[in-house]
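[step 3/7] fold_predict: job queued, chain A
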Amino acid sequence: MPFEKGRISGRGHRVEIEPQGLTRANRRGAAGIAAFMLIGVLSTSLVQRAVSASAITQGVLRFTILPTRSTVRFDADATGHTVHGITHQVSGWVSFDPEDLSRRAEVSFKVEAATLDTGNKSRDKKMRDSHLETGRHPVIVFQSSKVKAIAPTLRAGETQEMEVTGALSLHGTERVISFPVKAVRRGEELVVTGETSLRMTDYGIPIPAFLFMKVKDEVKVMFEVVATPSPAEN
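[step 4/7] structure written:
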């Protein structure tokens, strides 16, 4: 194609020949190509971020605790015998990434304090009214802040031991506690068991006493929760 006119400009040792007849068209074309490439780069980046976020969300499993198959029990040593208590009113959830427990492992549960049962109606009434004061403090709540596992994964069929740390709210007092647990994935279910010891005086609970019988301050707490995959959110 012949040039209409040309221009030679010297810039140091560089010489440019710009055919004036094509300059404007070329510049418009170059600008269009650059804009197209920029849009393509931005679109690719956004898609990659969306895929990455989706992968993170999909990697985390969430299980809902089944109250009918879960229990929290306690043993309180007293003069001459041990008081045993139990409840099935446990609710909450557990979430984790089965390929990386250090990433987003979390547990939250609550117990209806008034449902704790020792098998003695008069003793239960006194425990609920005078010690746990369930009218003022109806629920016992635990929310984890850290989960430390021995091994990094909890895939289907695996068993994992870990230490859970979090805030326990009991009788209007919140304290940070840590305790060992064992988690087992059986088919679609997740079974978590563990135990710890609590002191009633740490939570402002009056120590029960009746005539010559007195309960020790330290109470052993044991739990077994069964959870199944939570329904997918719409």
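[step 5/7] annotate
The radius of gyration is 33 Å.
The helical segments are 20-59, 101-104, 121-131.
exit 0
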